[in-house]
Amino acid sequence: MTPIQRKRAFLFILMTLTLDAMGIGLILPVMPDLIAEVNGGTIGTAAIWGGILATTFAVMQFIFGPVLGSLSDRFGRRPILLISLFVMTLDYLVMAVAGTIWLLFVTRVIGGITAATQSAAHAFIADISEPEEKSANFGLLGAAFGLGFVLGPVIGGLLGELGTRAPFYAAAALGAINLCFGYFVLPETVTDRIRRPFSLRRANPFGAFKALSQLDGLRRLILLVFLYEFAFIAYPATWAYFTKEAFGWSPGMVGVSLALFGIGMAFVQAVLIRIALKHWGERVTIIYGIAFNFLAFIALTLITNGWVALAFIPLTSLGAVVNPAVQGLMSKRAGDDQQGELQGVISSARSMAMIFSPLVMTQLFWAFTNETGVYFPGAAFALSAAIMIACMIVFLGRKRTVVV
Question: Which domain holds residue 270?
Fold first, then answer.
């Protein structure tokens, strides 16, 4: 692969993850109104259905992350990525015309399968990165995702003022454009040297985890990924409902707040993480990130003014160094022929968190705004702060398994 080909391919991967985030961000501001439109009920009921849909999406990612990662180890990253982009584009078009909650449910099943190809995208970056570059390059992928959260919620919030369906048409158009770009610029990185036979026994979350957990320290790091994602999902699972309930925000304001978070996350993962890794290394960077996230979650439970919350949002992104640093540690421990499988397991760990976290977080929101008699709309963030303590215990529990 020539340097020019490498840059173009890297750009496509960054665009793919940016558009993945944009697709999520585009629809987040309108989901409460869309669910109410097709199903009726209160904002609390919409939050519960939002949790069910998010969990459905995550179950598919959990199941198919290792499958598609292993398929990319066997057949290559290119066909897996391009086919999934095509299906994802069609899925958004169906969401744009869905008239029942059950059709939305079906689209989340398909969307979760196509989103599982993030394992192939991350494996592609692992293929073309030197060991010392991996954490920083995974940071760039996180920055791309953050950039998507800058653009997606802003566009989604604005389009949401025109109607609940407009953001889905926009997401489909963006997916189609990226598919065309990838068809012409994406090379194949899986060669005969690193090609691994497809094994159905290992192409599932449990089989892949069993195979990879024998490697140095990966079992504990996979648990850390699960716990961290479980806590972090409090943002996408409850933010639109929390801010509407606590501050009376419109879809447009929700979009602006998510965009501010995305700006901060993109800057942290594209720039600040490289500085942190250079001076601290992966281990201290992870410790800092977990500690900062704990403080941020605590602060969110205490804020009662919407403008203060809006100003605080960019600061919460300063803890967004954990995922790329952990992912870099894990990638260094896996062989060249296991990168797709590894990224599939990481995807499944995150998806497992997404299966349970939206249900827990939205139920907490519903309970503390409707049922318990104690009004505490920020209850989900309090739980996330407690989980950050568990993350620190897991990471520091046996230093020899995580020190590079």
Answer: 3-188+200-401
